[in-house]
Design brief:
Blueprint (H helix, E strand, L loop, with lengths): L11 H11 L8 H10 L7 H7 L4 H8 L3 H16 L3 H6 L1 H4 L3
Helix pairs in contact: 1-4, 1-5
C-alpha cells in the first residue's frame, strides 16, 4: 500500500497564510460562487497556477505563495487540489466543464 511521505513545511508563516486563504473558498456557502468565477474565467479548477495568476485565489495568496520555496509550493498545490476533490458531487456535476480534463 502506498503511504505518502509527510514533508516538513519550511516557511510556516507564509504557508499558513496560503492555507487560511484557500480553506474559506471551499466553505459550503462560498464554493458555488468560486466555481462560477472559475467558469467565467474559462479556466479549469485544477489549474492552480492559472487561477493564482488571474487573482481568483486572492492577492494575499499570491504574495504568500510566491514567498514559499519549491517544496512548500508543492504542498500548497496539493492542499488546494485536495480541497478541490472534496467538493460535493452535486456541485461537481453542475460545474462539469470546470472539472473536466480536456
Amino acid at each position: 500500500m502506498f503511504v505518502q511521505t509527510v514533508l516538513p513545511i519550511g516557511d510556516e508563516a507564509h504557508f499558513a497564510t496560503v492555507k487560511a486563504s484557500l480553506e474559506p473558498l471551499f466553505a459550503s456557502g462560498k464554493i458555488a460562487g468560486f466555481l462560477k468565477q472559475v467558469q467565467r474565467s474559462k479556466l479549469r479548477v485544477r489549474d492552480f497556477e492559472g487561477l493564482l495568476g488571474r487573482g481568483l485565489l486572492g492577492t494575499a495568496t499570491v504574495d504568500a505563495y510566491q514567498a514559499l520555496g519549491d517544496s512548500d509550493r508543492g504542498q500548497a498545490r496539493e492542499l488546494y487540489l485536495s480541497l478541490v476533490e472534496q467538493v460535493a458531487p452535486e456541485l461537481r456535476s453542475r460545474f462539469l466543464k470546470v472539472y473536466a480534463y480536456y
